[in-house]
Amino acid sequence: MKKLMMTFGGICLVIVALLGLQWGLTASRNQQSSGKDTLTFYNWGDYIDPSILTDFTKETGYKVNYQTFDSNEAMYTKIQQGGTNFDLAVPSDYMVAKLKDAGLLAKLDKKQLTGMNNLNPQFLNQSFDRGNQYSIPYFWGTLGILYNKKEVNGSELTNWSALWSAKYRNQVLLVDSARDILGMTLISQGKSVNDQNVADLAAAQGKLSSLMPNVKAIVGDELKLYMAQGEGSLAVTYSGEAKNAMERNPDLAYTVPEDGSNLWLDNLVIPKSAEHKQAAYALMNYLNRPDVAAKNAQYIGYATANKAAYERLPKSVQNDKAFYPKQSVLDRLQVYQNFDQHWTQLYNDAFLEFKLGKS
Amino acid sequence: MNSTKKRFTEAYLGVYGLWLLAFVVAPLLLLLIQSLNVPGQGLSLANYRDFFTSGPYLAMTVNSIWYAFLITVITLGISYPLALCLTKLKHRQFWLLLVILPTWINLLLKTYAFIGLLGKDGLLNQSIEAMGFGSQQLLFTNGAFLLVAAYIELPFMVLPIYNALLDIDPLLPAASRDLGASSFQTLKKIIWPLSMPGVKTGVQTVFIPSLSLFMITRLIGGNKVITLGTAIEEHFLVTQNWSFGSTIGVVLIIAMALTMALTTDRKKKKRRQRK
Amino acid sequence: MKIIERFWLAFCFFLLYAPILFLAVYSFNSGDAMQGFAGFSWVHYQELWQDTRLLQIVLNTLILALTSSLIATAIGTIGALAIYRTERRLLKQTLLGLNNVLLVSPDVIIGAAFLILMTALGLKLGFLTVLLAHVAFSIPIVVLMVLPKLQEMNRDLVLAASDLGAKPTEVLTKVTLPVIAPGIFAGFFMALTYSLDDFAVTFFVTGNGFSTLAVEVYSRARQGVSLEINALSTIMLGLAFVLVLGYYAYSQKTTSRKATKLKEKVK
Q1: Which residue of A22, A314, C99, C198 pairs with C59 in a disulfide if CB–CB is 3.0 to 4.6 A?
Q2: Structural domain tally of chain C?
Q3: C97 touches chain B (CB under 8 A)
Q4: Is B30 on the interface with A (CB under 8 A)?
Q5: Is A215 found in the same domain as A329?
Q6: Cα–Cα nearest to B24, from C188, C69, C195, C113
Q7: C20 falls within a domain
Q8: What is the pLDDT of residue A213?
């Protein structure tokens, strides 16, 4: 009994000590308070240069509560359920549409937005948010093929069907996403990534299952680790992931097949439940400033949607055709439309059956 | 005297019961309602019908049970001798804490470390090559998946077994040895039966969560093994069909309740026979 | 026999610590990834020291884990006593079954259910909701660790104590609790483990700027988890190691007498 009391008493003391430490840290940082000058920024983990937030606080006086999520759908659930008032969030394209349709977004007041001219018109007025009434683009990218130059001749990867070649047996890694993998199969068959036709989907599933002998694994975010380690020679993945892997392994290269691909955009939105809209607009405008956007793009390494910022980037980045592809490629990119639950389910079931077919 | 004791029991039941109501029964009801509330159809059993008539889902169920079983067996195989060795050490409590310590490191991080260790040019392959064998494909194999899963579950198995072993009166094995039993006989006839409660707890804490593993299946297994956990995760986080996700959850819970009922009943009967 | 034992111990500890050593070694990598050691450097530790947001999250995580485990251990022990003392078989089975529900439910389901529950109750998401959730999912493991100890307990001990005139409170604090103490400790440590490791449930019920280490690490996966986290894990493990050593050295003093007695008994 004495030992029990001693141990648990000790633990209580440790808790108190930790609380004290936390209080000290909060006081020195003076940022955690949720006063009226603090906005909650809901973003992917590590998806902004942290120094930008500190500079923003210094410059405007608004404090930022940075909270993170790991998937669009998880973020949607949190915003929908309430309980926290997020002031600024970063959903991807189709999720903007879903949030908008669910009435969870606040209409942007264009009068309060500055620096809209800095944005590249290419990425404005997209199908998921016509006229950018609810969102402005943050970063963008593509779906493509990441490959190892030592093992694969990049010039052969001009279209998606190249993946089906018998010489890539057991060498292909796929990203674990029904929409992306079925989407690229649909494109290889001359269809749209937003195809809503049962026969087309069945045909795509059929073609996809014949890819199975080439597929080594179907993985998530860790794909970049695997490719950097040389676990596969080719991978179907996003440009952001590819960039990350290429920084780790110089033998890797990234290409977008010429028969078309998906264009993804991460966007800044203000949820309807936001309580600090003033501060949210201030941060949006701050992130739109060419110098800030350029700094952020350098830190994250994704392609910026800010034209003025793009012009400030080093020439080597600007001319990197893999991440800022030429116009003819850009013209063939398609943005995902938001599917209703029925179609999301159909795509997912098809993908699940494909995965189970693997033994 | 007895009435005070009874009041104590009632107080315990009250505190515990309240918690059960708020954080188990209430969520459980929510889950059940959600699984019956099919979008666009109102209350219906459609989800359950779909589950039990769908090939892929039944295949996943079989997969889950099979792999959970394998994980439990492997974990038990490693843990039981380990717990036995630990109890014989001089500074056993210290070593036991060292077994638990690795669990305090983030799971994702440890999995990334395994990716590095098991990779094509990872440490393990380098040592295999140093021994004169060719490099092996380790990642995305069932072996790697089982290894990492067992690694994660290991402390949850060791701890209860270790506790059960420590409780065995040291006089019993000593007596058995004095009476001429070999150490294997002592282990089989004395130690193993007496440590059963610990083994049972260990099996429960490993098998049940193993049914719904999902992260490792993707990270290390490359989705070659697909369990119900994967399906549930997808229904909650990708297709956002919470209704069907809940259905799978309810099925899992009922399956667990059945297994528990079956295992305890058998034990009861045995006891009565002995009496 | 001795050699086999030693070999098995060495093997198990090697297995347990191989990935951890791997993480720790790479925390000193001057490069940016857990691949290709480029050279020794403290750079990730410096990054960590400057990242006050991450340090705050670490403190949050520790406070949460310790507090929730403490509460869960208390309620869990009470729960185990309740199940143990219940005479009616059906009630006993029901209680045990309900206890295990949270163990079998996948984290995502628990998280989603708790989120609905807590928003329905009108709670503001944050430290309190996460604490409640962690207490909730830690209790079953405590019960599972304590219950076998109670079942193994010699009933005569309790009966003898009450025959000798001990009050129920005395029986509890002087007989029952000391006997089941190993189970309680085990439960506490397991609860701590669950709490430190949990991502899915925490993610759903957190909000308003409160975050834990696991949530932070998982949400960094898309960008790639930086070696700063390795550095952090190395420090935390080092600290835990020192704590364990200290705790052990302390308890060694008090239990050494008992241990020698036990040995004499065996001889």
Answers
A1: A22
A2: 1
A3: yes
A4: no
A5: yes
A6: C113
A7: no
A8: 94
Any chain C CB within 8 A of the CB of A16?
Answer: no
Q: Are residues A73 and A135 in the same domain?
A: yes
Residue A32 has what pLDDT? Answer: 47
CA C199, distance to chain mean position in Å, is: 14
Are A298 and A205 contained in the same domain? Answer: no
Which candidate from A71, A77, A345 shows the least CB-CB separation from B241?
A345
Please count the residue pairs, one from chain A and one from chain C, whose beta carbons lie less than 8 angstroms apart: 134
Domain contains A19: no
B72 touches chain C (CB under 8 A): no
Q: Which domain holds residue A179?
A: 141-263+325-356
Q: Which of A14, A29, A68 sits opposite C66 (nearest CB)?
A: A14
Domains of chain B in start order, with CATH, are: 67-227 (1.10.3720.10)
Closest chain A residue to the Cα of C182, Cα to Cα: A4
B 180-219: CB under 8 A from A: 218-219
What does the pLDDT look like over A216-238, one tens digit per residue?
Answer: 999 988 899 899 989 999 999 99
Whether A50 and A101 map to the same domain: the answer is: yes
pLDDT of residue A239: 93
In a domain, C226, yes or no: no
Tell me which chain C residues have a C-beta less than 8 angstroms from the C-beta of B3: none
CA-CA distance, A34 to A64, in Å (whole number)? 9
Q: Please indicate, yes or no, if residue A18 is contained in any of the structural domains.
A: no
Centroid of chain to Cα A166: 32
pLDDT at B274: 41
Chain A CB contacts of B240 below 8 Å: 73, 76-77, 341, 344
Task: Give the closest-approach CA distance of B196 to chain C in angstroms.
Answer: 10
User: How far apart are alpha carbons A95 and A98 in whole angstroms?
Assistant: 5
pTM (whole model) above 0.90: no
Residue C160 pLDDT grade (very low, low, confident, very high; cuts 50, 70, 90): confident
Domain of residue C174, residue span:
53-211
pLDDT digits (tens, 9 = 90+) for B72-124: 999 999 999 999 999 988 888 889 989 989 988 988 899 999 998 998 888 88
| C9 half-sphere exposure, CB direction, 13 A CA radius | 17
The ipTM value here is 0.84
What's the number of domains chain A is made of? 2
Q: How far apart are CA C219 and CA C225, in angstroms?
A: 9
In a domain, A8, yes or no: no
Query: Across the interface, do A71 and B237 touch by the CB < 8 Å criterion?
Result: yes
DSSP A212-280: GGGEEEEESTTHHHHHHTTS-SEEEEEHHHHHHHHHH-TTEEEE--TT-EEEEEEEEE-BTT-S-HHHH
In a domain, A6, yes or no: no
- In a domain, residue C88? The reply is yes
CATH code (residue A349)? 3.40.190.10
In this predicted structure, the answer to whether residue A26 has a pLDDT above a threshold of 90 is no
CA A101 to CA A223: how far, in whole Å? Answer: 32
Identity of the residue in B101, B201, B242 whose CB atom sits nearest the CB atom of C148: B201
The answer on A347 and A201 residing in a single domain is: yes
Q: Do A68 and C56 lie within an 8 Å CB cutoff? A: no
Nearest CA in chain A to C47: A50
Instruction: Report chain C residues whose CB lies below 8 A from the CB of A247.
Output: 32
Residue A304's SS3 state is: strand
Question: A110-158: per-residue pLDDT in tens?
Answer: 999 999 999 999 999 999 999 999 999 999 999 999 999 999 999 999 9
Instruction: Tell me the chain C residues in contact with residue A82 when contact means C-beta distances shorter than 8 Å.
Output: 119
**A241 contacts: CB under 8 Å, gap ≥ 6:** A146, A175, A221, A223, A224, C222
A79 close to A99: Cβ distance less than 8 angstroms: yes
Residues A128 and A82 in one domain: yes
A223 lies in the same domain as A340? yes
